[in-house]
Specification:
The protein is mostly helical. Helix content is about 65%, strand content about 0%.
Length: about 80
């Protein structure tokens, strides 16, 4: 039996939304787990360097590839389109 919230979800609309983000059945698990790993590393980093520097901005994000990562590339493209 579905919960009341799950009964309100339109799966076809959700699938369209995720398609727009290039998330599909083949990569959704990797996408989800990648964000879990990022959050875990961020939590550990903030624990190791509390209130001294921004672990996320000064350490973690400096090591994320700036090209070939579709989410990052999409954000850059959106910003470029909006500023033209």
């Amino acid at each position: 039996m579905l919960t009341p919230i799950a009964q309100q979800v339109d799966l076809k609309e959700e699938a369209k939304y995720l398609e727009g983000l290039s998330i599909n059945r083949d990569n959704v698990y990797l996408h989800y787990r990648g964000h879990n790993i990022y959050n875990l590393i961020l939590h550990i980093g903030n624990y190791l360097v509390p209130n001294t520097i921004s672990f996320e901005n000064n350490i973690l994000n400096c090591h994320i590839p700036k090209g070939g990562y579709w989410e990052y590339d999409n954000v850059i493209n959106d910003i470029d389109d909006a500023t033209r």
